[in-house]
Design brief:
7 helices, mainly alpha, Arc Repressor Mutant, subunit A
Length: 128
């Protein structure tokens, strides 16, 4: 996997979601370095570039953990789904969805009731 992101939240999310054998930042290497990484991964070795390792080693103040329902709610909100749509898609009660949205807003530091702000914060952190 190759990325230009350096944000530790996003890097951790990608690793937790896809568990890549090779993960590099574009700025870490030139063409020959890229070829070396591909050869290493094909040989069964794990390779993370310096920027990826640095991002993983950063201590995060707000280590945000989301489960599959949280991610699904965020994705559907990003797609413009309303509560009536969420009820059919997420398979949770209205009160459970409302509670999860409140907790998500708290995790992302969102004040108020804006779903739009929640979606924007989730995008910035790389969750959607």
């Amino acid at each position: 996997m190759c990325t230009c992101f350096t944000d530790s939240f996003r890097i951790r999310h990608i690793i937790n979601s896809f568990n890549p054998s090779g993960f590099i930042n574009k700025q870490d290497m030139g063409f020959m370095g890229f070829v070396t990484v591909i050869n290493n991964v094909l040989a069964g070795k794990i390779h993370y570039s310096q920027t990826i390792v640095k991002a993983l080693n950063q201590k995060t103040v707000n280590n945000i953990r989301l489960d599959k329902y949280d991610i699904l709610i965020l994705k559907e909100l990003a797609n413009g789904s309303k509560m009536k749509d969420l009820l059919g898609l997420v398979h949770l009660s209205k009160s459970a969805i409302d509670k999860r949205k409140r907790l998500l807003k708290r995790k992302f530091g969102i004040e108020g009731n804006s779903d739009r702000d929640l979606v924007l914060a989730a995008k910035v952190k790389g969750f959607i």
